[in-house]
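User: Structure with NAP, tokens only please.
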Amino acid sequence: MSKSKRILAYRRLNDQQLDQLRENYHVDYFGKLESPDDPAFREALGEAHGLIGAGVKITPELLDAAPHLEAIASISVGVDSYPVEELTRRGILLCNTPDVLTETTADTGFSLIMASARRVVELAEYVKRGDWKASIGPDLFGSDVHGKTLGMVGFGRIGQAIARRGALGFGMKVLYSNASPKPEIERELGARRCEFDELLKTSDFVCTIVPLTDETRRMIGAREFKLMKESAIFINLARGQVVDEAAMIEALKSAEIRAAGLDVFEQEPLPADSPLPQMANVVALPHIGSATQETRTAMAQRAVDNILAALDGKRPLSPFNVEAWGDRLD
Ligand code: NAP
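Assistant:
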């Protein structure tokens, strides 16, 4: 095959993955892209038939600059950085990386549950500061995780994997609110689907893991925090925009809820003036849901396999908008 098509890669790939792409395609590689306004990136975009990457908001304006584009392989499961309808309209196939990150992201979710409930970060800082002079008193006690009620807002792949950890590992009662019922996992875990408000009122841990869409944007705001128990711990592993961050900060400051464990934020990286990192009842992580060596390598590999299959006219493992290519994938 002559190398007539070009792939633009804008996230770090390992040498083996780059070699795999270069076997049949010309590759423009930006392992550490600072900005999509970089003139060299723009030039490569103008020639690209395939994109592989993450962390860049793909706008219709960027698509206008990419007249040959056939397919995009995102190194993420979430597709909120892409104008999906616009891609479909233009006949551009979008692929994502479900499954390979499910268990790792669920581990991150559960570590936020544990760290927030048992005040792990706050108390580790206390030891580091040299404040541990005597046994701690009730003012620094945490709360139990085992046996509590875990309310999952979103019960897809990752939500179910978190619930499995809670139910089977920690004897937690699982409630969920989700677009559709999940009878199989209800049976497996004894989980129960309930109304959103009931979940908010009765859960000890409220954990959001839905995709960011028009429907889920700011689905947790002042009203929802008011419905939660005063002892509730809120966990956000989905996207920052699923929550009204100002309302969450207010709920944490006024003790409407006890604590929050957060992997995602309205603005990332967190702006310097955000109060969240300084709040004792907040565990804030730098969006590390899937960030292990093994999982990030597997995600990049899935994206490489997806883009190679797509540009070769074969059905990729995980296409997101199959309708973009009509009959081409059947
Ligand atoms: P998934 O399997 O598609 O699960 C998403 C679930 O949300 C589905 O069960 C879906 O319902 C449900 N849902 C969608 N809209 C809803 C709504 N309006 N109300 C209630 N439920 C709704 O996806 P996943 O693999 O679990 O990933 C979920 C999201 O997690 C991703 O889109 C991404 O944004 C985020 N994520 C974050 C990280 C991180 O680093 N923090 C890592 C990975 C993923 P149905 O089953 O009925 O469709």
